[in-house]
Design brief:
2 domains; alpha/beta; Rossmann fold; six-stranded parallel β-sheet; single chain; seven-stranded parallel β-sheet
């Protein structure tokens, strides 16, 4: 077992999709080692709350996402330079053994500081199209732990390992045997909700009310859009449980029979682990179109169908309705998709990533040079 003096820093956050894999990895590390574990993030309230609730130390450094606006560019440079300097001091003063970049802009200052100060760097990549920080730093990292094999073709680095995406506790239970007579349909627009799904899906469900006999609807609308979505369901007289956020997703998701969802990497990993057939609607403004690439990678496995609004224009609701109607009424197809989902799941990803990190920290895994 690595010594107690080892100090592992996980850096990133900004979104739940980046933070949750980090928390899963930290929990796996905690089970394997007595090393100190610290998260370095953007300072957002939800990050600090979730990290401290999990029992880990939390530090924040200045950071900002890239922008094309001249005014925002000045802020981007200023905050990230400050974050880089603070990270250098933190790595030196805390004698950090290894830095794990969780992706996103919040990971950049500390990951760059690790490279510049000679601290070994491990990168986690949740998406089929690697993010900008991953593409920028991959060749300087000891290893990139990827959720999708497709990542390889986008990186010149040779140090990519397909580990799967680390999952929070509770997603390793699989799908429970069916007992309830009703089936459950989940609309999942991400932790912040989705205006597109909130506006279109209730209207589509109204048109499919005959096919929805025997189905219960749960719609995660996001805090900012919750009241509008709930009002729309009421106006349409569609019975649905509308919530701002599903906090107990590991308990809810295994009981879902079909999901209409965005296609973030962490969300997809959770759907696969729970064997949930899905109709994926990629977020059209996702950086580098990564949600479309994620969705296509899952669809190839047979676990999902994809409807991209950008492909259909004004016909999007009609196409969505046709795809959803087919899945609601075809239990054989849903069962096949569920089997495909579980077959492509990586429930041991957190343990694999944690062991990789420890191997890097112990000097058992060296950085390969392309």
């Amino acid at each position: 077992m690595p010594s107690k003096s080892m100090h592992i820093v996980l850096t990133g956050g900004g979104t739940a999709g980046h933070l949750f894999p980090g928390l899963a990895t930290a929990a796996a590390l905690q089970a394997m080692t007595a090393a100190r574990i610290t998260f370095v993030g953007s300072g957002k309230d939800f990050e600090r709350r979730l990290v401290t609730q999990a029992g880990f130390d939390y530090e924040c450094v200045p950071c900002a996402p890239a922008s094309r606006s001249p005014g925002d560019m000045v802020r981007f440079m200023s905050r990230n330079v400050s974050g880089y300097r603070e990270s250098l001091a933190l790595l030196r003063e805390r004698r950090v053994s290894v830095v794990v970049g969780l992706g996103g802009y919040a990971s950049a200052p500390t990951a760059i500081a690790a490279v510049r100060s000679g601290v070994p760097l491990v990168l986690l990549e949740q998406n089929a199209m690697p993010g900008r920080v991953t593409r920028w730093l991959a060749s300087s990292a000891h290893v990139v732990c990827a959720a999708f094999d497709e990542v390889r073709k986008h990186l010149s680095a040779t140090n990519v390992r397909v580990t799967g995406n680390p999952l929070r506790a509770g997603f390793d239970q699989g799908k429970p045997p069916r007992r309830a007579a009703n089936r459950n349909l989940l609309i999942l627009g991400g932790s912040g909700g989705s205006r597109q799904l909130n506006e279109h899906v209730p209207k589509v469900l109204y048109k499919l009310r005959d096919q929805l006999s025997g189905w219960r609807i749960i719609h995660q609308a996001g805090g900012d859009h919750f009241h509008g979505a709930a009002d729309l369901y009421r106006k349409l007289a569609v019975d649905a449980r509308v919530v701002p956020l599903i906090a107990n997703m590991p308990e809810v998701l295994p009981r879902i029979d079909l999901a209409i969802s965005r296609a973030g990497g962490t969300t997809l990993a959770e759907l696969l682990a729970c064997g949930v057939p899905s109709l994926l609607i990629p977020f059209p403004e996702a950086s580098d179109n990564h949600q479309r690439k994620n969705a296509e990678a899952i669809a190839v496995s047979g676990a999902a169908r994809v409807v991209d609004a950008r492909d259909h224009g004004d016909a999007f609701p009609k196409v969505l309705s046709a795809e959803l109607a087919a899945l609601l009424t075809d239990s054989v197809q849903r069962a096949a998709m569920s089997t495909a989902a579980q077959r492509h799941s990586r429930p041991d990803a957190a343990q694999i990533v944690a062991q990789t990190i420890l191997n890097v920290a112990d000097g058992l895994l060296w950085r390969s040079v392309a």
